[in-house]
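Field log, afternoon session.

UNIT: design team B
ACTIVITY: writing a sequence onto a fixed backbone
BACKBONE:
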């Protein structure tokens, strides 16, 4: 049930949307003036930033806003504004702040959970491949996560796996039965078709982060022959139906020069991507190869490239490791997000496969107050240099200590990797990255 603030917010946004849609960029400054009268002081700088964006039609963020009004279907536009901006933003954040104070623990803005471990692909180095293939969360458990999450103020839910679209019907049902929430699904996109896209268009509150590793050679190298062409076809279908989607890319030693290039980003924007998320390769799992780890030079290259793209590309682009400076370090452990795998194990991060509790046995708030999550809360940020944010990849001694102190167990069902085995693979990369990160951090930065 929606609370009073949501109902009022939804009504106002609907009215604002109708006004904006008549002439988006002409009317945006007026809407900013209106919004500024009711927003908290913390957001005044944001309002001024949008005011400057609205004045300049050559600004890349101005162009992105225009793309959203021109390319997204009306239902998706409204749901994004109401569910993302109002519910997950203004309403949700206020409730989250109160929940943090009440329960004395981290309460995330978003929950990432895996509907299933099943996948129709087997990508080299994918952490999801380390879970048991036949394991899935019951629908009732997924509803429990969302129901209890909303009580804490969480209205943003991200689906991963496995391949979430293996359970298309249940994903659509989740989105429809929780139409006050925003959903984002990571996907290899090979199962997206016209019928599914039509339903997503009808609902409006489901977006997609499409996994792609570069062009055909780079993508098919990790994901299998023919995958790239299927991904490109899926992007065309999503664009046709006016659905929000972007690219999700793992950069590694074999593809960084391609996926970090201006040409590749331009091509993704031309396909319809409104955002782009970069992850660096992490060697999770006993059999994970270490030669795919990006070199310090490649990681520095991505650092500079992504900052450049954010100044001139009409696309929201971010790097979950190199952008640590903007969020003051690691966002996992419930600080901004958490992960629940397909077996129900509650983990601090999608790449940290250790846990004390299972969501089938405890309430969500008890999971957030579990020993490993409290270790995260006590120790964040893990480094004063926020270009070294990760406790596993950048500060491996810290994840080792936290897992051991909390007595968390391995949640990898196929190989049960100890934290000592995991960090043995990341220590060399952390040592090589440290001097480069320290040099970047010492220089003037945003």
């Amino acid at each position: 049930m929606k609370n009073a603030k949501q109902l009022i917010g939804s009504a106002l946004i609907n009215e604002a949307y109708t006004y904006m849609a008549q002439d988006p960029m002409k009317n945006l400054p007026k809407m900013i003036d209106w919004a500024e009268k009711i927003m908290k002081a913390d957001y005044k700088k944001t309002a001024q930033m949008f005011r400057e964006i609205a004045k300049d039609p050559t600004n890349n963020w101005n162009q992105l806003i225009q793309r959203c009004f021109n390319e997204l279907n009306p239902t998706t536009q409204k749901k994004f504004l109401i569910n993302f901006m109002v519910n997950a933003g203004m309403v949700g954040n206020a409730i989250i702040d109160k929940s943090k104070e009440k329960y004395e623990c981290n309460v995330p803005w978003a929950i990432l959970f895996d509907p299933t471990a099943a996948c129709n692909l087997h990508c080299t180095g994918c952490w999801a491949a380390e879970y048991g293939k036949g394991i899935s969360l019951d629908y009732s458990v997924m509803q429990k996560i969302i129901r209890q999450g909303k009580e804490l103020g969480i209205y943003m839910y991200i689906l991963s796996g496995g391949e979430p679209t293996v359970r298309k019907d249940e994903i659509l049902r989740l989105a429809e039965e929780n139409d006050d929430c925003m959903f984002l699904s990571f996907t290899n996109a090979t199962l997206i078709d016209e019928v599914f896209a039509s339903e997503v268009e009808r609902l409006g509150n489901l977006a997609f982060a499409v996994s792609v590793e570069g062009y055909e050679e780079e993508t098919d190298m990790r994901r299998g022959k023919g995958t790239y062409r299927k991904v490109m076809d899926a992007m065309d279908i999503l664009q046709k139906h006016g659905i929000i989607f972007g690219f999700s890319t793992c950069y590694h030693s074999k593809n960084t020069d391609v996926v970090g290039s201006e040409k590749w980003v331009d091509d993704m924007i031309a396909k319809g991507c409104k955002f782009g998320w970069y992850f660096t390769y992490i060697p999770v799992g006993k059999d994970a190869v270490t030669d795919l780890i990006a070199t310090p030079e490649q990681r520095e290259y991505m650092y500079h490239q992504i900052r450049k793209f954010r100044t001139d590309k009409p696309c929201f682009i971010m790097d979950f490791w190199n952008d640590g400076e903007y969020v003051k370090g690691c966002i996992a452990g419930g600080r901004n997000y958490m992960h629940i795998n397909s077996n129900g194990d509650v983990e601090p991060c999608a790449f940290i496969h250790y846990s004390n509790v299972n969501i089938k046995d405890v309430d969500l708030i008890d999971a957030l107050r579990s020993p490993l999550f409290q270790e995260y809360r006590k120790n964040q940020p893990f480094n004063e240099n926020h270009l070294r944010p990760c406790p596993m990849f950048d500060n491996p001694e810290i994840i080792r200590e936290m897992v051991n102190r909390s007595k968390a167990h391995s949640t990898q069902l196929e190989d049960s990797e100890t934290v000592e085995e995991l960090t043995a693979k990341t220590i060399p990369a952390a040592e090589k990255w440290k001097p480069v990160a320290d040099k970047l951090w010492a220089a003037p930065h945003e």
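LOG NOTE: The longest strand covers residues 245-251.
NEXT ACTIVITY: expression trials, pending approval
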